[in-house]
């Protein structure tokens, strides 16, 4: 976890960091997508609902190109994973 402290050294308000922010967000989105997708079929309802709250807050907090990428790639992939999940619990969520 020592790498987490490195993020405090960046000035995320400065315009010069936009490219790095986009790169970090895209990288983290891919990792988060893989983690969440792996739990869709077997996750407890409370865990899946918590993911939903997190994703909704993330979606509300972004705009522009990043929002399009989030909707068209990240969310679309999660929706497809949920549709194809073979679970009675998830069938109730649809």
TrEMBL record:
<protein>
    <submittedName>
        <fullName>CONDENSIN-2 COMPLEX SUBUNIT G2</fullName>
    </submittedName>
</protein>
<dbReference type="GO" id="GO:0005634">
    <property type="term" value="C:nucleus"/>
</dbReference>
<dbReference type="GO" id="GO:0000796">
    <property type="term" value="C:condensin complex"/>
</dbReference>
<dbReference type="InterPro" id="IPR024741">
    <property type="entry name" value="Condensin2_G2"/>
</dbReference>
<dbReference type="Pfam" id="PF12422">
    <property type="entry name" value="Condensin2nSMC"/>
</dbReference>
<dbReference type="GO" id="GO:0000070">
    <property type="term" value="P:mitotic sister chromatid segregation"/>
</dbReference>
């Amino acid at each position: 976890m020592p790498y987490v402290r490195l993020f405090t050294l960046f000035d995320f308000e400065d315009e010069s960091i936009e490219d790095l922010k986009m790169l970090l967000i895209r990288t983290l989105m891919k990792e988060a997508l893989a983690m969440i997708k792996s739990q869709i079929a077997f996750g407890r309802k409370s865990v899946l609902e918590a993911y939903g709250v997190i994703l909704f807050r993330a979606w509300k907090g972004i705009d522009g190109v990043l929002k399009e990428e989030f909707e068209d790639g990240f969310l679309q992939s999660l929706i497809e994973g949920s549709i194809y999940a073979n679970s009675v619990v998830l069938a109730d969520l649809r």
